[in-house]
């Protein structure tokens, strides 16, 4: 590593290799995510779509999904993809997206509860 600090060419090559490696890992993780969705199977997908016909269940699915992956953008993107592919209708997608927006607040609420013993910290953490 000491040789990298003295040779600017090696430092640039090192950075390019890190970028390529990071991109490879990102693409590999997307491929693994696709394979993991295939493991759920058709039965699971049909059950999930049937559950979303109830708006309250769709809202809870959105909240739980966003809480687990901690990203409402990811949940929303998945739902938009399902609607575009025709696997989910728009009326069922709206409560899921609303649930995703609600689920975003769960992480910061849990963190703020960690500061509940000190009133000033709790007020600052909750806002």
TrEMBL record:
Signal peptide: none annotated. It is found in: Cell membrane. GO terms for molecular function: sodium:phosphate symporter activity. One of its GO terms (biological process) is sodium-dependent phosphate transport. The keyword Cell membrane applies. One of its GO terms (cellular component) is plasma membrane. The chain crosses the membrane at residues 13-34, 55-73. It comes from marine metagenome. It holds the Pfam family Na_Pi_cotrans. This is Na/Pi cotransporter family protein. The keyword Transmembrane applies. It is a multi-pass membrane protein. Keywords: Cell membrane, Membrane, Transmembrane, Transmembrane helix. The lineage of its organism: unclassified sequences, metagenomes, ecological metagenomes.
């Amino acid at each position: 590593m000491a040789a990298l600090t003295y040779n600017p060419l090696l430092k640039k090559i090192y950075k390019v290799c890190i970028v390529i490696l990071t991109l490879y890992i990102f693409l590999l993780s997307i491929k693994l995510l696709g394979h993991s969705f295939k493991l759920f199977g058709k039965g699971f997908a049909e059950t999930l779509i049937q559950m979303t016909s109830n708006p309250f269940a769709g809202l809870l699915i959105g909240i739980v999904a966003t809480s687990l992956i901690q990203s409402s953008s990811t949940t929303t993107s998945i739902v938009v993809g399902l609607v575009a592919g025709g696997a989910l209708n728009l009326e069922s997608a709206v409560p899921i997206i609303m649930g995703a927006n609600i689920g975003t607040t769960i992480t910061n609420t849990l963190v703020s509860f960690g500061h509940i013993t000190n009133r000033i910290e709790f007020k600052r953490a909750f806002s």
